[in-house]
Structure formats: C-alpha cells, structure tokens
Write a structure and sequence with these properties.
mainly beta, 25-stranded mixed beta sheet, 40 strands
Amino acid sequence: MQRRDLLALGGATLAGSALSGIPAAQAASHQAPFGRLISAGDFGAAGDGRTDDTAALQAALDAAYAGEDGGLLLIPPGRYRITTTLRIAPQANITRQSGILGIGARIVSAITDGSDILDISSRSTFRFLLIQGLDIHGSGKDGHGIRLSCPGNRNFLYNFCLRDLVIQSCGKNGCQLIGNVFEGQIANCYFRNNRGHGASFHHDPAGKGILSAVRVIGGVFGENGIHGAAMLDGCYDVSYHGSYFLLNKRFGLVAENGCTLLSSCGFENNHEGADDFSHGDAGIWLQGFATLVGCTAYSMFRQTHLLRATLTGRLAMVGCSGSGDARAAGAGLAVLRGDPRSSATLIGCSGSLKSEGGFEAVEIGSGDGGLRCGGDWQSRTLAQLGDYRLWVDRQGRLRIKKGRPQRDDDGSLVGVV
C-alpha cells in the first residue's frame, strides 16, 4: 500500500473535528465515540514549578493514548517541572484528533543527560496529532524540545499540527521532525535561544521514510545556536509562509537539497556568531532549487545578503529584496552559482545580485527596470523572441538568428541592411 492510499483511512472518523460538517462523515455509521478529554490535574500534576511532575504527566499521556482512539490531554496553566523525557508512542492506529492542549502551561525541563523533553514516535498510522499552547523551557543540558519521528516506510505520522508553541533554551534543537512525517502544519510557533537549530527537518537517514508537505506558518526562529531552521538528509518539501528568522548564530535557513516555497518571510541580522560583516553570510543558504515570493532581508551587522545558492535546478524570486545599514550598508539580494542544468529568474526584486562561476540570471523589472539577460552568444539566458535569439558580438553589435547561434558572428546584424 502506498502512503497516499492511506488518505482515505479514517476519513469517516472525523466527527468532532473541523471536518465534521462533511456529509460523508455525517453519513458514516461505524464511527467510534468522541475522543476523550482528560486533565493532567486528575493524575496528580501540581504545576507549581517545584514538584517533579514527570510521573503524573506521563501517566496522563499514557491514559490519553490507551486503546485505539487516542484522547486530548488538557494541561492547565502552571509550571510543570520534569526530570525525564515525556513520551507519546501509540501502539494502535490513531485516526482522530488527539494530543495536548496546554495554553498557559509551561514545561520546565530539569533534564541534564541530553535526553529530549517531549518525544513523539509513530510505529503505526498516526493522524491528527495536535500539540497546542505549550511553553517548553529547556535546561540547556537536555536534548530536543519536541521530537517527532516515524522510522521506516510502513508507519505514518501525518495530518499533524503544532501550534501556538514557545520552545526555548533547549540543549539541542527546539524541534526535530524526522522520517515518514508529512502533510502537517507548524503554526504560530516561536523557536528561541536553543543551542542547536530552532527547528530541523529530515528524511529518514536510512533512506526509507520521506518527510514532505510540511507547512510552517507564522513561525519565528530567533537567537538559536546554529541555524534558525535546517532542512537536512535530503529533505526539501517544507514551505515557510509569513515566518521570520533573526539573530541566529549562523544562517536563518539552511536547505541542503532545495526548498519548495518561501513566501513573505523576513531574514534579519543573522550570523551573530561571525566576527564582522566581512565574515558574515546570507540569511538563506541552499543547494538545488527554490521559489521565493515577497521575502526580505535587512541587516545592520553581519548578514550580507538574502540568499546564497548553489543551484542544480530552477530558482524563481518574485518581489524580494535585500538591504542593509550601518556596518552592513553593503548588504544585497543574492549570491548565485549553478551547474549547466540550473536557471534563475528574478522578477521585480531589489538589491545587488552577484553571480559566481560564470552563472547568469534573468532579471525582469529589477534594479534599473527592463530585462537583463545573457549577452554572449554562448549564454544560456539569451533574449528570445519566438524562435529567434539575440546577442551582442565581440564588437558590440546586436545580432539575431533563428535558433541557437553556433559562433559569435553567426546570424545577421540587427539594423544593418
């Protein structure tokens, strides 16, 4: 069975969720009872910031995931001290909404052995996970704040939502998603001051599980010890919308294999770990391909550009800008290089563009306006009018030919009878 074939699984068990108004769901006759809502307080969690609440919270989570349906655990407002990892690892398939509601609740980690704070692992089909409202405060000696994992390609963790979270001061990454994790959202979350990345996204390192179709909406990645967000181990299908990346020690975003889409995202004053502007770098570093729409970069210190890219596919940038003031007055838009398969098209962008290794981008309505493309007969970005190519020969004369030119003096001179 293919992963996408599972989209139908549980489609009739969504009563009580945002999809309960769909006629097919209403018509289903085999729906299980509504999911349970239980309170951590009923299991002895104190939430006073002094009591070790690990056992009480784990007992509550175990109760929420006992049986086949899953439930929602309510953690009331308070400060909940924990000393070992909290775990969610359902053994049965979960196909209705379950998870944690923790608005006003802070998990205070006293973990000192590098273990994660909240570990969520799927070895089944796990859908509609919701983690909402928690403030997770690490010790700096623990591991990841939240880790979502699904090893292999026969288990599935999807249709999840992490929202309204603050994850800060963790010893590793604020959040790590790894393996067969897909079709989910991370909305209105703040990843701050974690010693590793703010968040990281990975395919299964064993090559069996594919992370894909993850959308980050309104996220903030700030003051993290390495990158704001990192897409690693071949992962590329994560998109970012209305998110902000600032004051990270290195890049705001790293995408080792490309990035599906960034829209209306801002990158400000990253590379806080660099000595000065001359040793800084761009807000984004990527290899492969990407689409950027309405993204901006601003720097006063060490961030040098919006984007540094080594391309193997297509780059499209629309309405993006890069600028700086003070010590970063020389900050610009992008530094690009690429192999013969790659291309870059920039439309309505502002800020300086630097190309390396002979790479040429097509610019439309950027800088002084108009169209800027390759002018040498061998360029891969020659202006094309229908089947005709235009270029400037070595003597500065405009030439035209139907089809691609084979030499500098090929075709005909324009304006010469």
